[in-house]
Specification:
The chain is of the alpha+beta class. The protein has eleven helices and 21 strands. The strands form six sheets. Strands 11, 14, 17, 18, 19, 20 and 21 form a seven-stranded mixed sheet that branches. Strands 1-8-6-3 form a four-stranded antiparallel sheet, with no helix packed on it. It has a four-stranded antiparallel sheet with strand order 5-4-2-7, covered by helices on one side. About 30% of the residues have low confidence.
Length: 537
Protein backbone atom coordinates (compact mmCIF):
# COMPACT_ATOMS: atom_id res chain seq x y z
CA UNK A 1 0.00 0.00 0.00
CA UNK A 2 1.21 3.49 -0.83
CA UNK A 3 -0.08 6.97 -0.04
CA UNK A 4 -0.49 9.48 -2.88
CA UNK A 5 -1.46 13.15 -2.86
CA UNK A 6 -3.45 14.73 -5.68
CA UNK A 7 -2.42 18.37 -6.43
CA UNK A 8 -4.79 20.93 -7.92
CA UNK A 9 -4.15 20.78 -11.70
CA UNK A 10 -4.30 23.51 -14.33
CA UNK A 11 -7.54 22.66 -16.13
CA UNK A 12 -6.36 24.23 -19.36
CA UNK A 13 -7.35 27.90 -19.10
CA UNK A 14 -4.25 29.52 -17.56
CA UNK A 15 -5.53 28.70 -14.08
CA UNK A 16 -3.51 29.99 -11.14
CA UNK A 17 -5.98 29.26 -8.34
CA UNK A 18 -9.45 27.85 -7.76
CA UNK A 19 -12.07 27.60 -5.02
CA UNK A 20 -13.13 24.24 -3.58
CA UNK A 21 -16.91 24.31 -4.07
CA UNK A 22 -17.97 20.81 -3.01
CA UNK A 23 -16.21 17.58 -2.12
CA UNK A 24 -17.80 14.48 -3.67
CA UNK A 25 -15.91 12.08 -1.38
CA UNK A 26 -14.99 11.91 2.30
CA UNK A 27 -12.30 10.23 4.42
CA UNK A 28 -12.85 6.49 4.47
CA UNK A 29 -14.43 6.34 1.01
CA UNK A 30 -13.09 3.84 -1.53
CA UNK A 31 -12.75 5.49 -4.93
CA UNK A 32 -12.17 4.30 -8.50
CA UNK A 33 -10.12 5.77 -11.31
CA UNK A 34 -11.96 8.68 -13.02
CA UNK A 35 -14.48 8.96 -10.18
CA UNK A 36 -15.29 12.63 -9.53
CA UNK A 37 -13.49 13.82 -6.41
CA UNK A 38 -14.34 17.49 -6.13
CA UNK A 39 -16.06 20.39 -7.84
CA UNK A 40 -13.97 23.55 -8.18
CA UNK A 41 -14.78 27.08 -9.33
CA UNK A 42 -12.28 29.02 -11.38
CA UNK A 43 -12.56 32.64 -12.45
CA UNK A 44 -14.54 31.48 -15.49
CA UNK A 45 -16.35 28.19 -14.88
CA UNK A 46 -17.26 25.25 -12.66
CA UNK A 47 -15.11 22.14 -13.18
CA UNK A 48 -15.33 18.57 -11.85
CA UNK A 49 -11.97 16.90 -11.14
CA UNK A 50 -11.74 13.08 -11.61
CA UNK A 51 -9.43 10.83 -9.62
CA UNK A 52 -6.23 9.66 -11.38
CA UNK A 53 -5.98 6.58 -9.15
CA UNK A 54 -8.02 4.13 -7.09
CA UNK A 55 -7.84 3.51 -3.37
CA UNK A 56 -9.14 4.74 -0.02
CA UNK A 57 -9.45 8.43 0.84
CA UNK A 58 -7.37 9.11 3.95
CA UNK A 59 -7.67 12.89 4.10
CA UNK A 60 -9.15 16.01 2.52
CA UNK A 61 -6.37 18.60 2.70
CA UNK A 62 -8.48 21.65 1.81
CA UNK A 63 -11.89 22.68 3.17
CA UNK A 64 -14.89 23.67 1.05
CA UNK A 65 -14.88 27.39 0.34
CA UNK A 66 -11.08 27.69 0.49
CA UNK A 67 -9.06 29.04 -2.44
CA UNK A 68 -6.13 26.87 -3.52
CA UNK A 69 -3.17 27.61 -5.76
CA UNK A 70 -2.37 25.30 -8.68
CA UNK A 71 0.02 22.53 -7.63
CA UNK A 72 -1.02 22.46 -3.98
CA UNK A 73 -2.16 18.97 -2.75
CA UNK A 74 -5.89 18.83 -2.05
CA UNK A 75 -6.56 15.15 -1.21
CA UNK A 76 -4.60 12.15 0.11
CA UNK A 77 -5.37 8.60 -1.08
CA UNK A 78 -3.99 5.25 0.08
CA UNK A 79 -3.81 2.87 -2.85
CA UNK A 80 -2.49 -0.54 -3.83
CA UNK A 81 -0.81 0.02 -7.18
CA UNK A 82 -0.96 -3.64 -8.11
CA UNK A 83 -4.70 -3.91 -7.48
CA UNK A 84 -5.76 -0.49 -8.72
CA UNK A 85 -8.35 -0.67 -11.53
CA UNK A 86 -7.65 1.02 -14.85
CA UNK A 87 -11.04 2.70 -14.99
CA UNK A 88 -14.73 1.95 -15.34
CA UNK A 89 -17.01 0.40 -12.71
CA UNK A 90 -15.67 -1.24 -9.60
CA UNK A 91 -15.58 -5.06 -9.40
CA UNK A 92 -18.96 -6.63 -8.74
CA UNK A 93 -17.73 -8.10 -5.47
CA UNK A 94 -17.32 -4.57 -4.10
CA UNK A 95 -20.83 -3.43 -5.01
CA UNK A 96 -22.27 -3.88 -1.49
CA UNK A 97 -20.42 -2.46 1.52
CA UNK A 98 -22.40 -4.54 4.05
CA UNK A 99 -23.55 -7.71 2.31
CA UNK A 100 -21.16 -10.67 1.92
CA UNK A 101 -23.01 -12.12 -1.11
CA UNK A 102 -24.99 -10.72 -4.02
CA UNK A 103 -28.50 -10.94 -5.38
CA UNK A 104 -29.56 -11.00 -9.05
CA UNK A 105 -30.27 -7.70 -10.83
CA UNK A 106 -34.02 -7.69 -10.12
CA UNK A 107 -36.16 -6.06 -7.41
CA UNK A 108 -35.85 -8.01 -4.11
CA UNK A 109 -38.87 -9.27 -2.19
CA UNK A 110 -39.72 -8.09 1.35
CA UNK A 111 -38.35 -11.34 2.73
CA UNK A 112 -34.80 -10.53 1.64
CA UNK A 113 -32.77 -9.30 4.65
CA UNK A 114 -31.57 -5.69 4.58
CA UNK A 115 -27.90 -6.65 4.50
CA UNK A 116 -28.36 -8.45 1.18
CA UNK A 117 -30.54 -5.85 -0.58
CA UNK A 118 -27.86 -4.19 -2.71
CA UNK A 119 -28.04 -3.63 -6.51
CA UNK A 120 -25.54 -5.33 -8.77
CA UNK A 121 -23.75 -4.55 -12.01
CA UNK A 122 -25.82 -4.28 -15.19
CA UNK A 123 -24.54 -7.60 -16.64
CA UNK A 124 -26.74 -10.63 -15.70
CA UNK A 125 -25.48 -12.42 -12.60
CA UNK A 126 -26.60 -15.86 -11.50
CA UNK A 127 -28.61 -15.83 -8.23
CA UNK A 128 -26.58 -16.60 -5.14
CA UNK A 129 -28.28 -17.41 -1.82
CA UNK A 130 -27.76 -14.47 0.53
CA UNK A 131 -26.72 -14.78 4.14
CA UNK A 132 -28.24 -12.17 6.42
CA UNK A 133 -26.00 -10.24 8.76
CA UNK A 134 -25.81 -11.67 12.33
CA UNK A 135 -27.53 -8.61 13.75
CA UNK A 136 -30.38 -8.99 11.29
CA UNK A 137 -30.79 -12.67 12.24
CA UNK A 138 -31.04 -11.81 15.89
CA UNK A 139 -33.73 -9.24 15.27
CA UNK A 140 -35.76 -11.57 13.00
CA UNK A 141 -37.51 -8.52 11.60
CA UNK A 142 -37.21 -8.14 7.80
CA UNK A 143 -36.38 -4.62 6.57
CA UNK A 144 -38.34 -2.99 3.76
CA UNK A 145 -37.08 -3.91 0.31
CA UNK A 146 -35.25 -1.27 -1.68
CA UNK A 147 -35.75 -1.37 -5.44
CA UNK A 148 -32.50 -0.78 -7.38
CA UNK A 149 -32.43 1.94 -10.02
CA UNK A 150 -32.20 0.99 -13.72
CA UNK A 151 -28.64 0.16 -14.82
CA UNK A 152 -28.67 2.96 -17.41
CA UNK A 153 -29.42 5.65 -14.84
CA UNK A 154 -26.62 8.09 -13.98
CA UNK A 155 -24.80 7.82 -10.70
CA UNK A 156 -26.68 9.64 -7.94
CA UNK A 157 -25.62 13.21 -7.26
CA UNK A 158 -24.36 14.09 -3.84
CA UNK A 159 -26.84 15.60 -1.40
CA UNK A 160 -25.88 18.87 0.29
CA UNK A 161 -25.50 19.98 3.90
CA UNK A 162 -26.24 17.51 6.67
CA UNK A 163 -27.61 14.85 4.35
CA UNK A 164 -24.40 14.65 2.30
CA UNK A 165 -22.60 12.19 4.57
CA UNK A 166 -25.54 9.85 4.58
CA UNK A 167 -25.87 9.84 0.81
CA UNK A 168 -22.14 9.30 0.20
CA UNK A 169 -22.31 6.20 2.36
CA UNK A 170 -25.33 4.92 0.46
CA UNK A 171 -27.35 4.76 3.69
CA UNK A 172 -31.07 4.32 3.17
CA UNK A 173 -32.10 3.80 6.79
CA UNK A 174 -31.61 1.53 9.79
CA UNK A 175 -33.43 -1.34 11.39
CA UNK A 176 -33.81 -0.04 14.93
CA UNK A 177 -34.35 -3.51 16.32
CA UNK A 178 -31.14 -4.99 14.97
CA UNK A 179 -28.95 -2.02 14.19
CA UNK A 180 -28.56 -3.30 10.61
CA UNK A 181 -27.76 -0.63 8.02
CA UNK A 182 -29.74 -0.64 4.78
CA UNK A 183 -27.54 0.18 1.82
CA UNK A 184 -28.47 1.24 -1.71
CA UNK A 185 -26.93 3.02 -4.68
CA UNK A 186 -28.60 4.84 -7.56
CA UNK A 187 -26.61 3.06 -10.28
CA UNK A 188 -24.94 -0.32 -10.42
CA UNK A 189 -22.46 1.06 -12.94
CA UNK A 190 -20.98 3.61 -10.54
CA UNK A 191 -18.28 2.78 -8.02
CA UNK A 192 -19.91 3.05 -4.56
CA UNK A 193 -18.29 4.70 -1.55
CA UNK A 194 -17.64 2.45 1.44
CA UNK A 195 -17.29 3.61 5.01
CA UNK A 196 -16.18 2.07 8.24
CA UNK A 197 -18.90 1.03 10.78
CA UNK A 198 -18.40 4.18 12.85
CA UNK A 199 -18.87 6.39 9.80
CA UNK A 200 -22.06 4.51 8.83
CA UNK A 201 -23.56 5.03 12.29
CA UNK A 202 -22.72 8.74 12.13
CA UNK A 203 -24.19 8.95 8.62
CA UNK A 204 -27.45 7.34 9.72
CA UNK A 205 -27.72 9.74 12.65
CA UNK A 206 -27.06 12.72 10.36
CA UNK A 207 -29.70 11.51 7.90
CA UNK A 208 -32.33 11.18 10.63
CA UNK A 209 -31.48 14.65 11.98
CA UNK A 210 -31.80 16.11 8.48
CA UNK A 211 -35.21 14.49 7.93
CA UNK A 212 -36.50 15.76 11.27
CA UNK A 213 -35.25 19.27 10.53
CA UNK A 214 -36.84 19.24 7.06
CA UNK A 215 -40.21 18.14 8.47
CA UNK A 216 -40.24 20.93 11.05
CA UNK A 217 -39.22 23.57 8.49
CA UNK A 218 -41.83 22.58 5.89
CA UNK A 219 -45.00 22.22 8.00
CA UNK A 220 -45.98 25.88 7.80
CA UNK A 221 -44.62 26.55 4.30
CA UNK A 222 -47.08 28.14 1.87
CA UNK A 223 -46.99 29.32 -1.71
CA UNK A 224 -47.54 32.87 -2.93
CA UNK A 225 -51.25 32.16 -3.24
CA UNK A 226 -51.46 30.90 0.33
CA UNK A 227 -52.01 27.20 -0.45
CA UNK A 228 -49.89 24.45 1.08
CA UNK A 229 -47.66 22.64 -1.40
CA UNK A 230 -47.65 18.93 -2.11
CA UNK A 231 -44.10 18.78 -0.75
CA UNK A 232 -45.35 20.10 2.59
CA UNK A 233 -48.02 17.46 2.89
CA UNK A 234 -45.51 14.73 2.12
CA UNK A 235 -42.89 16.17 4.48
CA UNK A 236 -45.49 16.31 7.27
CA UNK A 237 -45.75 12.52 6.98
CA UNK A 238 -41.98 12.15 7.32
CA UNK A 239 -41.19 11.12 3.76
CA UNK A 240 -40.18 12.70 0.46
CA UNK A 241 -42.42 12.72 -2.63
CA UNK A 242 -41.85 9.87 -5.07
CA UNK A 243 -40.05 10.74 -8.28
CA UNK A 244 -42.27 10.10 -11.30
CA UNK A 245 -39.73 8.43 -13.60
CA UNK A 246 -36.70 7.58 -11.48
CA UNK A 247 -37.01 4.82 -8.86
CA UNK A 248 -34.72 5.73 -6.00
CA UNK A 249 -33.07 3.53 -3.41
CA UNK A 250 -33.25 6.39 -0.93
CA UNK A 251 -35.24 9.57 -0.52
CA UNK A 252 -31.95 11.24 0.34
CA UNK A 253 -30.42 10.60 -3.10
CA UNK A 254 -31.12 13.80 -5.05
CA UNK A 255 -30.40 14.26 -8.75
CA UNK A 256 -29.12 17.77 -9.50
CA UNK A 257 -26.43 19.28 -11.68
CA UNK A 258 -23.45 21.00 -10.03
CA UNK A 259 -24.65 24.54 -10.90
CA UNK A 260 -28.03 23.73 -9.36
CA UNK A 261 -26.32 22.49 -6.19
CA UNK A 262 -24.27 25.71 -6.10
CA UNK A 263 -27.47 27.77 -6.49
CA UNK A 264 -29.15 25.79 -3.70
CA UNK A 265 -26.15 26.37 -1.46
CA UNK A 266 -26.16 30.10 -2.19
CA UNK A 267 -29.91 30.33 -1.43
CA UNK A 268 -29.60 28.14 1.68
CA UNK A 269 -31.93 25.51 0.21
CA UNK A 270 -31.78 21.87 1.31
CA UNK A 271 -32.16 19.88 -1.93
CA UNK A 272 -33.68 16.91 -0.06
CA UNK A 273 -36.76 19.06 0.64
CA UNK A 274 -37.22 20.32 -2.94
CA UNK A 275 -39.92 18.83 -5.18
CA UNK A 276 -38.17 17.80 -8.42
CA UNK A 277 -39.96 18.44 -11.72
CA UNK A 278 -37.22 17.41 -14.18
CA UNK A 279 -38.04 14.81 -16.84
CA UNK A 280 -35.69 12.27 -15.21
CA UNK A 281 -36.65 13.22 -11.67
CA UNK A 282 -33.85 15.77 -11.31
CA UNK A 283 -34.08 19.07 -9.46
CA UNK A 284 -34.13 22.04 -11.85
CA UNK A 285 -33.19 25.70 -11.43
CA UNK A 286 -36.87 26.69 -11.26
CA UNK A 287 -37.48 24.07 -8.54
CA UNK A 288 -34.78 25.60 -6.33
CA UNK A 289 -35.92 29.19 -6.89
CA UNK A 290 -39.56 28.27 -6.24
CA UNK A 291 -38.63 26.49 -3.02
CA UNK A 292 -36.47 29.44 -1.90
CA UNK A 293 -39.36 31.85 -2.41
CA UNK A 294 -41.69 29.62 -0.40
CA UNK A 295 -39.15 29.21 2.37
CA UNK A 296 -38.63 32.98 2.55
CA UNK A 297 -42.28 33.36 3.58
CA UNK A 298 -41.63 31.13 6.59
CA UNK A 299 -38.30 32.81 7.45
CA UNK A 300 -39.81 36.30 7.27
CA UNK A 301 -42.39 35.30 9.86
CA UNK A 302 -39.91 33.65 12.22
CA UNK A 303 -36.91 36.03 12.05
CA UNK A 304 -36.37 39.80 12.35
CA UNK A 305 -35.98 41.83 9.18
CA UNK A 306 -32.18 42.03 9.48
CA UNK A 307 -31.69 38.65 11.16
CA UNK A 308 -29.81 40.23 14.07
CA UNK A 309 -26.58 40.40 12.00
CA UNK A 310 -24.87 43.80 11.81
CA UNK A 311 -22.60 42.96 8.89
CA UNK A 312 -21.03 40.11 6.97
CA UNK A 313 -17.74 39.60 5.16
CA UNK A 314 -17.69 38.12 1.64
CA UNK A 315 -14.31 36.94 0.31
CA UNK A 316 -13.31 38.35 -3.08
CA UNK A 317 -12.50 35.31 -5.20
CA UNK A 318 -13.52 33.32 -8.26
CA UNK A 319 -15.84 35.11 -10.69
CA UNK A 320 -16.22 38.14 -8.40
CA UNK A 321 -12.44 38.65 -8.35
CA UNK A 322 -12.28 38.35 -12.16
CA UNK A 323 -15.14 40.85 -12.56
CA UNK A 324 -13.45 43.34 -10.23
CA UNK A 325 -10.17 43.12 -12.13
CA UNK A 326 -11.81 43.48 -15.55
CA UNK A 327 -14.06 46.40 -14.60
CA UNK A 328 -11.26 48.30 -12.84
CA UNK A 329 -8.94 47.83 -15.80
CA UNK A 330 -11.61 48.96 -18.27
CA UNK A 331 -12.89 51.95 -16.29
CA UNK A 332 -9.44 53.39 -15.57
CA UNK A 333 -7.71 52.51 -18.84
CA UNK A 334 -10.23 53.31 -21.58
CA UNK A 335 -11.63 56.89 -21.59
CA UNK A 336 -15.39 56.22 -21.66
CA UNK A 337 -17.91 58.42 -23.45
CA UNK A 338 -21.64 57.59 -23.28
CA UNK A 339 -24.60 58.58 -25.46
CA UNK A 340 -28.37 58.05 -24.98
CA UNK A 341 -31.46 58.31 -27.16
CA UNK A 342 -35.18 57.60 -26.60
CA UNK A 343 -36.77 55.41 -29.26
CA UNK A 344 -40.32 54.52 -30.27
CA UNK A 345 -40.16 50.71 -30.14
CA UNK A 346 -43.83 50.10 -30.97
CA UNK A 347 -43.07 48.44 -34.33
CA UNK A 348 -40.34 46.31 -32.76
CA UNK A 349 -42.87 44.99 -30.21
CA UNK A 350 -45.35 44.27 -33.04
CA UNK A 351 -42.60 42.48 -34.97
CA UNK A 352 -41.69 40.38 -31.93
CA UNK A 353 -45.35 39.42 -31.51
CA UNK A 354 -45.56 38.25 -35.15
CA UNK A 355 -42.37 36.22 -34.80
CA UNK A 356 -43.74 34.47 -31.71
CA UNK A 357 -46.85 33.50 -33.67
CA UNK A 358 -44.85 32.29 -36.69
CA UNK A 359 -44.51 28.49 -37.12
CA UNK A 360 -40.89 29.06 -38.15
CA UNK A 361 -40.05 30.33 -34.65
CA UNK A 362 -42.14 27.74 -32.79
CA UNK A 363 -40.32 26.61 -29.66
CA UNK A 364 -37.72 29.40 -29.96
CA UNK A 365 -37.58 32.24 -27.44
CA UNK A 366 -38.09 35.60 -29.14
CA UNK A 367 -37.65 38.92 -27.33
CA UNK A 368 -36.82 42.55 -28.18
CA UNK A 369 -33.19 41.68 -27.39
CA UNK A 370 -33.12 39.62 -30.60
CA UNK A 371 -34.05 42.69 -32.66
CA UNK A 372 -31.49 44.74 -30.71
CA UNK A 373 -28.80 42.18 -31.56
CA UNK A 374 -29.66 42.38 -35.26
CA UNK A 375 -29.77 46.17 -35.06
CA UNK A 376 -26.26 46.33 -33.58
CA UNK A 377 -24.87 44.00 -36.29
CA UNK A 378 -26.58 46.13 -38.97
CA UNK A 379 -25.15 49.35 -37.47
CA UNK A 380 -21.65 47.87 -37.16
CA UNK A 381 -21.60 47.20 -40.90
CA UNK A 382 -22.19 50.93 -41.43
CA UNK A 383 -19.73 52.08 -38.73
CA UNK A 384 -16.82 49.62 -38.73
CA UNK A 385 -14.59 51.41 -36.18
CA UNK A 386 -16.95 50.58 -33.26
CA UNK A 387 -16.08 46.92 -33.85
CA UNK A 388 -12.38 47.32 -33.04
CA UNK A 389 -9.68 46.64 -30.46
CA UNK A 390 -7.07 49.07 -29.12
CA UNK A 391 -3.41 48.36 -28.55
CA UNK A 392 -0.71 50.86 -27.63
CA UNK A 393 0.64 50.80 -31.19
CA UNK A 394 -2.34 50.07 -33.43
CA UNK A 395 -6.12 49.80 -33.80
CA UNK A 396 -7.40 46.44 -35.01
CA UNK A 397 -10.67 46.71 -36.96
CA UNK A 398 -12.56 43.39 -37.02
CA UNK A 399 -14.43 42.44 -40.19
CA UNK A 400 -16.54 39.95 -38.27
CA UNK A 401 -18.86 40.29 -35.26
CA UNK A 402 -18.41 38.15 -32.16
CA UNK A 403 -21.45 39.52 -30.37
CA UNK A 404 -21.19 39.45 -26.57
CA UNK A 405 -24.09 39.29 -24.10
CA UNK A 406 -23.79 40.53 -20.53
CA UNK A 407 -25.46 37.72 -18.57
CA UNK A 408 -26.38 37.90 -14.88
CA UNK A 409 -25.87 34.42 -13.40
CA UNK A 410 -25.84 32.97 -9.86
CA UNK A 411 -22.04 33.05 -10.08
CA UNK A 412 -21.90 36.71 -11.16
CA UNK A 413 -21.60 38.64 -14.41
CA UNK A 414 -20.47 36.64 -17.45
CA UNK A 415 -20.04 37.89 -21.02
CA UNK A 416 -20.12 34.98 -23.50
CA UNK A 417 -20.21 35.83 -27.18
CA UNK A 418 -21.72 34.42 -30.36
CA UNK A 419 -19.00 33.83 -32.93
CA UNK A 420 -19.52 35.24 -36.45
CA UNK A 421 -22.98 36.56 -35.60
CA UNK A 422 -22.94 38.65 -38.80
CA UNK A 423 -23.49 35.48 -40.86
CA UNK A 424 -26.56 34.29 -38.93
CA UNK A 425 -30.19 34.58 -39.95
CA UNK A 426 -32.73 35.93 -37.48
CA UNK A 427 -33.79 32.39 -36.56
CA UNK A 428 -30.21 31.19 -36.13
CA UNK A 429 -29.39 34.20 -33.96
CA UNK A 430 -32.49 33.59 -31.80
CA UNK A 431 -31.44 29.99 -31.18
CA UNK A 432 -27.86 31.01 -30.42
CA UNK A 433 -28.98 33.64 -27.89
CA UNK A 434 -31.29 31.17 -26.15
CA UNK A 435 -28.65 28.44 -25.99
CA UNK A 436 -25.96 30.80 -24.71
CA UNK A 437 -28.27 32.25 -22.05
CA UNK A 438 -29.23 28.82 -20.71
CA UNK A 439 -25.60 27.70 -20.72
CA UNK A 440 -24.57 30.78 -18.73
CA UNK A 441 -27.36 30.33 -16.17
CA UNK A 442 -26.39 26.69 -15.67
CA UNK A 443 -22.78 27.72 -15.02
CA UNK A 444 -21.46 25.80 -18.03
CA UNK A 445 -20.06 28.68 -20.05
CA UNK A 446 -16.57 27.71 -21.20
CA UNK A 447 -13.57 30.07 -21.38
CA UNK A 448 -13.62 29.78 -25.19
CA UNK A 449 -17.20 31.09 -25.28
CA UNK A 450 -16.09 34.24 -23.42
CA UNK A 451 -12.94 34.88 -25.46
CA UNK A 452 -12.41 37.07 -28.55
CA UNK A 453 -15.55 39.20 -28.28
CA UNK A 454 -15.69 42.30 -30.52
CA UNK A 455 -18.75 44.22 -29.24
CA UNK A 456 -21.26 43.66 -26.43
CA UNK A 457 -24.95 44.31 -25.77
CA UNK A 458 -26.72 44.30 -22.41
CA UNK A 459 -30.43 44.33 -21.55
CA UNK A 460 -30.91 46.30 -18.34
CA UNK A 461 -34.60 46.64 -19.14
CA UNK A 462 -35.27 43.22 -17.63
CA UNK A 463 -34.47 44.80 -14.25
CA UNK A 464 -36.89 47.67 -14.82
CA UNK A 465 -34.15 50.20 -15.61
CA UNK A 466 -34.68 52.91 -18.23
CA UNK A 467 -31.00 53.39 -19.01
CA UNK A 468 -27.47 53.26 -17.64
CA UNK A 469 -23.82 53.90 -18.44
CA UNK A 470 -22.36 50.47 -19.24
CA UNK A 471 -18.64 49.82 -18.78
CA UNK A 472 -16.75 48.40 -21.75
CA UNK A 473 -15.83 44.75 -21.81
CA UNK A 474 -11.98 44.73 -21.77
CA UNK A 475 -10.56 44.47 -25.29
CA UNK A 476 -13.63 46.07 -26.92
CA UNK A 477 -14.41 49.71 -27.78
CA UNK A 478 -18.24 49.72 -27.73
CA UNK A 479 -21.12 48.37 -25.63
CA UNK A 480 -24.85 49.00 -26.15
CA UNK A 481 -27.52 48.91 -23.42
CA UNK A 482 -31.27 48.53 -23.91
CA UNK A 483 -33.64 49.88 -21.25
CA UNK A 484 -37.14 48.81 -20.32
CA UNK A 485 -39.88 49.12 -22.97
CA UNK A 486 -43.06 50.67 -21.61
CA UNK A 487 -45.96 52.93 -22.70
CA UNK A 488 -45.11 56.65 -22.76
CA UNK A 489 -46.64 59.71 -24.36
CA UNK A 490 -45.09 60.25 -27.79
CA UNK A 491 -45.72 62.81 -30.50
CA UNK A 492 -46.83 61.17 -33.78
CA UNK A 493 -47.79 63.42 -36.73
CA UNK A 494 -48.42 66.32 -34.36
CA UNK A 495 -50.62 64.30 -31.99
CA UNK A 496 -49.65 62.94 -28.57
CA UNK A 497 -50.21 59.20 -28.46
CA UNK A 498 -49.31 56.30 -26.20
CA UNK A 499 -46.36 54.42 -27.70
CA UNK A 500 -43.98 51.71 -26.51
CA UNK A 501 -40.78 53.63 -25.76
CA UNK A 502 -37.31 52.54 -24.74
CA UNK A 503 -33.94 54.21 -24.21
CA UNK A 504 -30.80 53.10 -26.02
CA UNK A 505 -27.54 53.85 -24.20
CA UNK A 506 -24.01 53.15 -25.39
CA UNK A 507 -20.45 53.63 -24.14
CA UNK A 508 -17.36 53.92 -26.32
CA UNK A 509 -13.58 54.01 -25.98
CA UNK A 510 -12.85 57.60 -27.00
CA UNK A 511 -9.32 56.64 -28.03
CA UNK A 512 -10.84 54.80 -30.99
CA UNK A 513 -14.36 56.08 -31.53
CA UNK A 514 -14.88 59.79 -32.17
CA UNK A 515 -18.09 61.56 -31.22
CA UNK A 516 -19.49 61.71 -34.75
CA UNK A 517 -18.99 57.96 -35.33
CA UNK A 518 -20.50 57.13 -31.93
CA UNK A 519 -23.53 59.34 -32.68
CA UNK A 520 -24.13 57.79 -36.12
CA UNK A 521 -23.82 54.29 -34.68
CA UNK A 522 -26.37 54.92 -31.89
CA UNK A 523 -28.70 56.60 -34.40
CA UNK A 524 -28.50 53.56 -36.71
CA UNK A 525 -29.31 51.17 -33.86
CA UNK A 526 -32.27 53.34 -32.84
CA UNK A 527 -33.50 53.48 -36.44
CA UNK A 528 -33.82 49.69 -36.61
CA UNK A 529 -35.62 49.54 -33.26
CA UNK A 530 -38.03 52.15 -34.58
CA UNK A 531 -38.43 50.43 -37.96
CA UNK A 532 -37.33 46.74 -38.05
CA UNK A 533 -38.05 46.65 -41.82
CA UNK A 534 -34.62 48.29 -42.28
CA UNK A 535 -33.11 44.86 -41.60
CA UNK A 536 -34.30 43.88 -45.10
CA UNK A 537 -31.78 46.36 -46.54
Amino acid sequence: MSVAEFPLPDVGEGLTEAEIVQWRVAPGDEIAVDQVLVEIETAKSLVELPSPFAGTVTGLLVAEGDTVEVGKPIIRVESDAAAAPTGGPAPVADAAPVAQTQTPAQPPTPAVPAAAAAPVAPAPVAPVPASPAPSAQAAAVPAPAVAPAPAAAPAPATAPASAQVAVDAGVVGTDEGSGAVLVGYGSATSAPSRRKPGARRAAAAAAEASRASSREADLDLVTDDGEATTADAVAAQGRRPARPTMPSASALQVMAKPPIRKLAKDLDVDLTTVVATGLAGEVTRDDVIRHAKQASVFRNIETPEWGGVRQETIPVKGVRKAIATAMTTSAFTAPHVSLFVDVDATRTMEFVKRLKESPTFAGVKVSPLLIMAKAVIWAVRRNRSVNSSWTDREIIVHHFVNLGFAAATPRGLLVPNIKDAQDMSLLELAKAIEEMTLTARDGKTSPAQMADGTITITNIGVFGMDTGTPILNPGEVAIVAMGTIKPKPWVVDGDVRSRMVTTIGASFDHRVVDGDVASRFVHDVASVIEEPALLLD
